[in-house]
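For practice. Any example?
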Amino acid sequence: MNVWIAIGVTAIGCYAVKLTGLLVPAGVLERPLVRRLAALLPVALLAALTAQQTFADGQALVLDARAAGLAAAAVALVLRAPFLLVVAAAVAVTAGVRAVGG
């Protein structure tokens, strides 16, 4: 039963956040600072998620095959490779390092 309570609270919370966003006056959304934050916030959140998923294992910091895959993706991005090639490079390097035992 606790799971259903958590699901209900989450659903109500999501609805409340959505409703709050709809109630913000249009004048507030047109401010330059708000526009800049709205453009930069998704990038910052994605970077934080990537770092957390790459370098964390529970409460510990780790440096394993995921870091090598991220480095390979970064190199491919610097070389202006197409997105699918960036992903393929990250996957291949990560798999290769894990296969070697890293």
Notes: The chain is about 80% helix and 5% strand. The two ends are 43 Å apart (CA to CA). The chain has a mean pLDDT of 93.
